[in-house]
Amino acid sequence: MTTADYTRPEVLTDLAGQWAVPVHGNAVIQWDYDQRNDKLVRLYKQGKQRQWDMDERLDWDHEVDPDDPLGLPDEFISIAGSKLWDRLPESERRVVRRHSSGWLYSQFLHSEQAALIAVGKILLTVEDLDSKLYAATQLMDEARHVEGFNRFLHTKIGLRYGLSPSISAMFEHAMREPRWDFGVLAAHILVENMGLATFGVHRERLKDPLARAFSAYVARDEARHVAFGRLLLRAYYPQLSEAELREREDFVVEGCWALRDRYVDDEIWNTLGYGEEAIKASRRSPAKREFRRLVFMRIVPGLKEIGMFGPRVQEALAKMGVLGFQEVDEEALRALDDKAAVDALTQHEMELRRRDIQQVVDLGSARPLDDAGPLDDAGPLDDAGPLGSAGPLDGAVPAP
Q1: What is the pTM for the complete model shown?
Q2: Domains of the chain, first to last
Q3: What is the chain's Cα-based Rg?
Q4: Contact 76, 128 (CB under 8 A)
Q5: DSSP class of residue 62?
Q6: 51-60 pLDDT, tens per residue?
Q7: Cβ(389)–Cβ(383) under 8 Å?
Q8: What's the half-sphere exposure (Cβ side, CA atoms, 13 Å) at 147?
Q9: For residue range 284-337, what is the model confidence (pLDDT) as tens digits?
Q10: What are the CA-CA distances from residue 220 to residues 29, 165, 239 (Å)?
């Protein structure tokens, strides 16, 4: 199935044409095939083994609630709990839930396409072969994510917003920058950590089973991407001069401020005509504070691990009120992520297995008694559907 098969969603932002950004840097062909980074090789193998096909793994025939297509808990809506929200009748709250879902998945859609392009540039410009090979597997991941979010917006939500200017500015800077590591900072350290935090929560909290399962698969992919970025940069940054590191620090500080203060959903409230009251309520809401906590709980330890944690970065993080996250036990957090990913995907794939078995049972019960063919003509259960064709569940990403 392609996007040509979908009904066009209502587009709520002028996105005609293309977003064209000049790309700078040298495409590097590596003639040394003998050097090996064992951790990158292991991550590359995981990237190959953990590919998945959403046509097989997800039930796209599932009917979502048209007014709440993600099953988004109200506490995730940025004006929930405000006086404005309390005044809204249930009919308008349903509209807000749908638009909040559409805005959120639109951000993921556009960010995944930007990441697709950024990883393509990393593949071209990074020097070592192992990094190029892993980046090739991530390209497939990002393409699959673009397909999935686009499909969900087209077939389940029915509307689409534009990309937050804070995210587009970050990616544009990285694409214009000829040095490959800026793309890694933008995609793998900042935006992918934001995605990992969000999808991890969605995997547990969304009420719609299709959206919840999709989040679980995407979260497992994002964990590999974040691990790749950290492996690359913590080996590379000790080689840079103080002046070169300062340029990266400037980029990181600006990106963190953008995620903290400028990644906002003003478009929703302007589209719905709620105006400044909603915008102000949204920006100081408990939902926004929780979002920042979850995102920077991932980003701050990541910056520390790659060595992007000098006095200037720490001072900026302190001003943002997030420096305390440097004390987060990352190994424990990754272990929790791994267990949650395995639990969620195991449960989902058991449900798929039960569905496959039921289909075989229904096929057998529907056949006339004098049918010459035996029941097992339907094929072994291993070939009956999504789980059998997709391979075994092999867990989440171990700490690199």
Answers
A1: 0.83
A2: 3-12+38-275+282-364+373-390 (1.10.620.20)
A3: 22
A4: no
A5: P
A6: 999 999 999 9
A7: yes
A8: 15
A9: 999 888 999 999 999 999 999 999 999 999 999 999 999 999 998 877 777 776
A10: 30, 27, 31
